[in-house]
Amino acid sequence: MEIPANKGNRMSDTRRDFLHSTATVAAGLTGAAALMAQAPQGPLAGRQGQGQGLGQGGSRGGQLQPTTPPRPASQIQVPKMKFGSAEISRLICGANQFYGFAHFNQILGTVMQEYYTPARVCELLHQCNEFGINAMVFHTNGRGQPDLERFLADGGKMHLIAQGLDDPSAMVKAFKPLSVYYHGENTDRAFQSGQMDTVKEWCKRVRDMGTLVGVGTHKPEVIALVEEQGWDVDFYAGCVYNRTRTPEEWKKVLNGELVEMQGECYLQSDPPRMYKVMRATTKPCFAFKILAAGRVTNVEQAFRTAYESIKPNDGVFIGMFPRMRDEVRENAERVHRILVGA
Length: 342
Prior knowledge:
Elements: H1 13-21, H2 29-36, E1 80-83, E2 86-89, E3 91-93, H3 106-115, H4 118-130, E4 135-138, H5 144-153, E5 159-164, H6 169-175, E6 179-182, H7 184-192, H8 196-207, E7 212-217, H9 220-229, E8 235-239, H10 247-253, H11 270-280, E9 285-288, H12 299-309, E10 315-318, H13 327-340
Parallel strand pairs: 3-10, 4-5, 5-6, 6-7, 7-8, 8-9, 9-10
Antiparallel strand pairs: 1-2
């Protein structure tokens, strides 16, 4: 099935401009390697982080005493929300882009991986701090821990909203995250197979670790179910696009057709359904993939719709890839403009 290139399915300006400017990449991954061999470009060029030491488990939220002088704050500061015992920014830095989880295609994912050296990850997080973004999604696999340790040792401060699977006790002990939530795709598989009790038991174990506990999902009905059953959880992380439909469910919504990348199909009718259940609960919610992994054309409107559709004590996870544009500044200014009106 060919998806029309209407404004609901086109990629955002940033990713579209990026892919247009690197057309040779489409010939294969060798093009991506050649691109990244060029001199650094974009807002982070020439601003590499200097910290080399390793961090240690600090206070709640994984914060350490700085080893370098703090960087000056921007006049634009992202508004805050109360989350547990902390005040965190209502814009939370995502981590998928750091490690190549583009949710677009393999080529873009590889380019992201090659762009985001440990130094660039550290520098982007420092820039987030300058604009008052003081919370991030924490990936515990791969480079996630050493990249965070580098950032903390370089004087950075972030409250951690950690994705969790299996036994997160070692991570909780080492980094003392503000919160941990069960990974959304795993939640959805448990829901589809009638095994949500395993997710509930995981949440109970994390509760005993002394951190806020949440459930991630791509399905509004999961949040509705957890609320109906009265689980002992503190928050939800919800993808506004239901990426985890079964093939049978996709056939139903696509009139019997199937797309090639079923896990990366984004329907314009999905976000209102997720926003509705987020408004219905009093617990804090974090909306993610509000830009359909870069497919949304009108970025400003997508941000505005998100913040106007969620509660004042809710936030948004957003991944940033400043290869072509200063997305940290743009997003901070955009959220400030929407929420403060200036």
